[in-house]
C-alpha cells in the first residue's frame, strides 16, 4: 500500500480535482473536531481511487469550492460509509450539493448484514483490521501524526472494493433499485445547521426540562445560555464546560451562594471555582425574570396518529419477515408523510416524501389497501 498523498495548498487541490474528475467512482470520508471545539468544522477530507489515497487538509486550504463539481457530478459515483454525517457537514461548511452517491452502510443494511460498521465489515469481508484509536482525535490540530494519517486513509482505501462486492450482492438479492432510492435520499439531505449558532430553545432539549416549573425553566434557560457563552469563549464543546445533568440540578435547586453550590453533588470544586460566581449571578437574575413555559406544539390529530401507528406496525412486520431494520423498508419521512397525507390512488403515492418508484411498486398496493381499510373503520 503506497503512502497517501497529502493535499495542503490550492495548487495541489487543483491537481487533485483534475485527477478525481477522470475517475468513474471515488471513495470519500471526512474528519471533524466535534469533540474538541465549540464550532465543529470539517478538518480533513479523504478521497480514494482504485490506485491512490488522498488527504485534503481542510484547515490549511481556505477555499475548497473547486471540489463542488466533483460532489455534484451526476456521472461520477461518490462512495461513502454512513454518508449522512459527511453530507450534512460538507453542506454546512461549504455549501456542497451531492449527486450519485453510494453508501456502503446503507447497502449493508439493505442486504440485512448483521454488522454494518465499517471496521466489522472490512474484517469480515476482507480480513482487514482497522485501528479505531483515533476516532475521537482532535483533527484540527497540526501536524497530524503518522498514526492519524494511517487511520484516515483506511476509512476510504477499501470502499471502492467494498462497493463492487455490494453491487453484486444487491443485484443478486433483487435489492439494487431499492438501494439506489436510499442513496438518492441521502444525496437530498439538507445541509447541517451552522455550527455554533445559538438556538434560543435548545435548553428544552435537556433531559428533564419539561418536568420543571416555569420559574425553574427560567433558571435552566439562564444557566444553559451561560454554558454556551463559556463554551464559545473557550472554544470547547458545551458538554466539556458543564454536563446537562448539572444544568438541571442548578435549575431544580436554584443555589444562592457558593456554599449552596458546594452542596450540589454534581459540581466538583474546580468547576465551582471557575464558574461559581458567574452562575450565581445568572441564577439571581433568572429568579426575577419572567417564568418560562414550554413551547406550544400542535398535537397531531388522532386520525393521523392512528395511521402512523398502523403504518409503523405494518413496516415492522415487513422488516421482521425480511430480516432488516424497519427504516430499510420505508424511511421515517415516508411513514410520517403517508400518515399526514393519506393517498387514495397510485398517482397520490408519487407525491409522498422519499417514496421512490421501486418502493411504490413493491409496497404501494399494500399501503393503499391498509389506508383504505383504516378509512372505512368506524371511529
TrEMBL record:
Q: Which GO terms describe its biological process?
A: nucleobase-containing compound metabolic process
Domain of life the protein comes from: Bacteria
Q: What class of enzyme is it?
A: hydrolase
Among Gene3D superfamilies, the record links this protein to:
HRDC domain, Ribonuclease H-like superfamily/Ribonuclease H
Stated EC number for the protein is: 3.1.13.5
> What are the entry keywords?
Hydrolase
Q: Which GO terms describe its molecular function?
A: 3'-5' exonuclease activity; nucleic acid binding; nucleotide binding; ribonuclease D activity
PROSITE patterns membership: HRDC
Domain HRDC per the UniProt entry, residue ranges: 213-293, 301-379
Q: Which SMART domains match?
A: 35EXOc, HRDC
The protein's name in its UniProt record: Ribonuclease D
In its UniProt entry, the species of origin is given as: Luteitalea pratensis
Amino acid at each position: 500500500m503506497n503512502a497517501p498523498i497529502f493535499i495542503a495548498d490550492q495548487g495541489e487541490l487543483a491537481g487533485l480535482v483534475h485527477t478525481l474528475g477522470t475517475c468513474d467512482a471515488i471513495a470519500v470520508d471526512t474528519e471533524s473536531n466535534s469533540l474538541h471545539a465549540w464550532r465543529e468544522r470539517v478538518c480533513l477530507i479523504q478521497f480514494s481511487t482504485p490506485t491512490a489515497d488522498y488527504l485534503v487538509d481542510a484547515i490549511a486550504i481556505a477555499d475548497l469550492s473547486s471540489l463542488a463539481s466533483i460532489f455534484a457530478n451526476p456521472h461520477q459515483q461518490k462512495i461513502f460509509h454512513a454518508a449522512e454525517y459527511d453530507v450534512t457537514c460538507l453542506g454546512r461548511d461549504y455549501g456542497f450539493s451531492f449527486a450519485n452517491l453510494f453508501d456502503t452502510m446503507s447497502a449493508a443494511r439493505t442486504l440485512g448484514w448483521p454488522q454494518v460498521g465499517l471496521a466489522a465489515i472490512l474484517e469480515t469481508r476482507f480480513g482487514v483490521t482497522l485501528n479505531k484509536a483515533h476516532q475521537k482525535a482532535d483533527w484540527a490540530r497540526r501536524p497530524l501524526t503518522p498514526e492519524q494519517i494511517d487511520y484516515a486513509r483506511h476509512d476510504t482505501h477499501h470502499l471502492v472494493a467494498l462497493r463492487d462486492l455490494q453491487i453484486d450482492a444487491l443485484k443478486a438479492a433483487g435489492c439494487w433499485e431499492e438501494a439506489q432510492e436510499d442513496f438518492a435520499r441521502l444525496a437530498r439531505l439538507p445541509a447541517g445547521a451552522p455550527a455554533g449558532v445559538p438556538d434560543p430553545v435548545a435548553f428544552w432539549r435537556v433531559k428533564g426540562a419539561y418536568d420543571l416549573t416555569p420559574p425553574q425553566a427560567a433558571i435552566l434557560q439562564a444557566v444553559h445560555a451561560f454554558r454556551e457563552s463559556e463554551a464559545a469563549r473557550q472554544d470547547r464543546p458545551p458538554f466539556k464546560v458543564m454536563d446537562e445533568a448539572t444544568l438541571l440540578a442548578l435549575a431544580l435547586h436554584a443555589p444562592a451562594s457558593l456554599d449552596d453550590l458546594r452542596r450540589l453533588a454534581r459540581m466538583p470544586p474546580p468547576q465551582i471555582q471557575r464558574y461559581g460566581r458567574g452562575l450565581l449571578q445568572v441564577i439571581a437574575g433568572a429568579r426575577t425574570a419572567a417564568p418560562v413555559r414550554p413551547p406550544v406544539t400542535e398535537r397531531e390529530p388522532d386520525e393521523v396518529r392512528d395511521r402512523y401507528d398502523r403504518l409503523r406496525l405494518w413496516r415492522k412486520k415487513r422488516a421482521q419477515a425480511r430480516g432488516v431494520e424497519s427504516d430499510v423498508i420505508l424511511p421515517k419521512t415516508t411513514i410520517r408523510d403517508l400518515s399526514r397525507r393519506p393517498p387514495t390512488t397510485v398517482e397520490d403515492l408519487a407525491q409522498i416524501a422519499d417514496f421512490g418508484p421501486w418502493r411504490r411498486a413493491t409496497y404501494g398496493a399494500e399501503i393503499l389497501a391498509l389506508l383504505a381499510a383504516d378509512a372505512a373503520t368506524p371511529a
